Amino acid sequence: MVGLCGVLGTDSELPDEMTEWVTWRDDERTDSYADEDVELVVSCHPRLAGDQPVFATGEDTLVWVWGDVYGHGSGEDYTPRPQDVGTSASFCAHLYGEHGIEMVEALNGDFALVVYDRTADVVSFVTDRVGTRPIYYARPDEDTFVFASNLQALPHHPDVDVAFQEPYLQEYLALRRVFGVETPLSGVRELQPASVTSIDLDDLTMNEASYWRPHYEPVNRSASWFVDRLTETLRTIFEEWTRDDLDYGLLLSGGSDSRLVEACIDQPVTAFHVTDWNNRETRVARHVAETAGDDFHPLYRDDVHEARSLGTTPPLSNFSGWFDQAYCAEFEEEIREEVDVLVSGLFADMLFGGGPIQTRSYSLGPVGKLSVPIGRRVDDVADYVATKTGDRGEIPYFTPDLSLSDVVADGIRPTADGGVVSHGVRYESLRDLVMYGDYYPLSADTEAIFSRSLTQIRPYRTPFLDNRLLDLQQQVPVKYMLRRDLVGAGLRTVDPALADIPHAGTGVPPSTSFPVAYVRKNLNGLYRKHVCDEPVPAPHLDHRPWPDRRELLRAFPFAIDAIRENEDLIRSLPFLDYDGVRETFQSHQVSEDNHTTLYSLLTLLEMPLTDHLAPSGDDDDAPVVPETPTAGTRSDEVGTRPL
């Protein structure tokens, strides 16, 4: 596993049980450092690592980088990091020598930095704009600061004594995430996104300073202006990123986002597509790849995929997402054999498709609901909480008498200057919370485990989190996010042939103008739902990118098997009721939809830290370090199904 961990304090040591959490594989580059105040281990993909730490300003300051720094500056003063000279760490060390720690304000990339100024006796942790590389920390006493990129690692430090925080655990069980920088572990928090957190080694006092916050300020420009900026920036990003001597893999769906990436990248790619069968999504993705002239590489799941994932991927969890959302983890060996770098179109819909914005909908009786592309106002914190919790009721197996709405609301408070602090993260206004609270920090995203798992396979990049596109998004009027297809329009500009291929989900080509596409999309949906749709081989299989989790729980025994195997663990945890767990599963089998709370529970039960923190009647408290969760256990099975 790539990542980092360490401890600050003269009387504390970094135990092997923690370092094993960031050094699972022999083919990763691992660097260790220790002196009387600082002990640190960082593990990276060899292509990114280089020698670490790198010295800045003589030998007074050491710099480590976990992740990838793309460049520095903004606007016309932006300088991409040379891809053929030096590493992210050497690039940052050079900038530090020129600008000091202030250099982080203009850093662009997917990274976490550790900067150790040995003259000042200060260690500074730097996170990128949205915290794509989270660092979690605990302060077991005034003389110790323990940190790790994987939340699962922290309880294995002998001085870190944690327990579950029931309110935030309820957030995870009901909503698939914990907002802000809070965690379900007492005394454990995430470092702020876009921040410099400095620790004075003399007394371990901690100072946090934010260098950037997303702030929505739309500008009065035409939709075509934004489309031009979007496509020009994407092309520029790939010109800077790609190298002729590397092989690139693209996660390709049947939608528009990854299709636009394929159109803008200036290299041939291997188009990886995870699927269960030759459904509509797969056929469209194949058509897109073949039209672009790229190799199409389907990755087929089988009927025991869910059970296998449950046994391997929960160690990757930081309480953001479910075990099965590490979609590509099972195919790691196959992907690594094919490519050097992975690319995706993730977060395009969140940023440019109005993902966080609630829209209005109207009931059409037995026909269904009609969603209209008009934003719904959020006037106060209560409105915001309602949009996040919806009609989710009590969790039958969760024993604390807590209201989910109250739990979420208790983590949010207005500030005197008009800002809002949600779960430890400040936003400049309620509108900014609405626009950015789902991914600032990224750990608040319900599928963060997907991105996290991709970083373990190969060096991984998603262009839509580049600073320049984050800046552009803050200028886009809501009306364009909801009533224009900016990604589709960009695709029409860059590659009309790809834009003419119908979207797998809507059945409408991205080349279609928005008003026509809106009508056709709804008519297609009604036709498929009420008149006729292509048959599927089994109830849990459909034409969407992923199988139907509701039906998976009914078709296969992985959930009830895990419940039975973990009966003792469930009964030992004071906030879980075993009979309630059985009731939740059984009622889902009959008619109710409990898939959210069941998938969250299954992920929790299989996390190593859950067993580690559970009350025990014996003295065997040895931490369990997991085997590599992405071993290629079925590479010989992939592709055995007919296309």
UniProtKB/TrEMBL annotation:
Gene3D superfamilies hit by this protein: Glutamine Phosphoribosylpyrophosphate, subunit 1, domain 1, HUPs
PANTHER family given in the database record: ASPARAGINE SYNTHETASE, ASPARAGINE SYNTHETASE (GLUTAMINE-HYDROLYZING)
Glutamine amidotransferase type-2 domain segment(s): 1-202
Lineage top rank: taxon: Archaea
Chain segments carrying region Disordered: 612-643
Species of provenance: Halomicrobium zhouii
Biased composition (Basic and acidic residues): 634-643
One Gene Ontology molecular-function label: asparagine synthase (glutamine-hydrolyzing) activity
Pfam annotation, one family: GATase_7
Protein name: Asparagine synthase (Glutamine-hydrolysing)
Alphabetized SUPFAM superfamilies for the sequence: Adenine nucleotide alpha hydrolases-like, N-terminal nucleophile aminohydrolases (Ntn hydrolases)
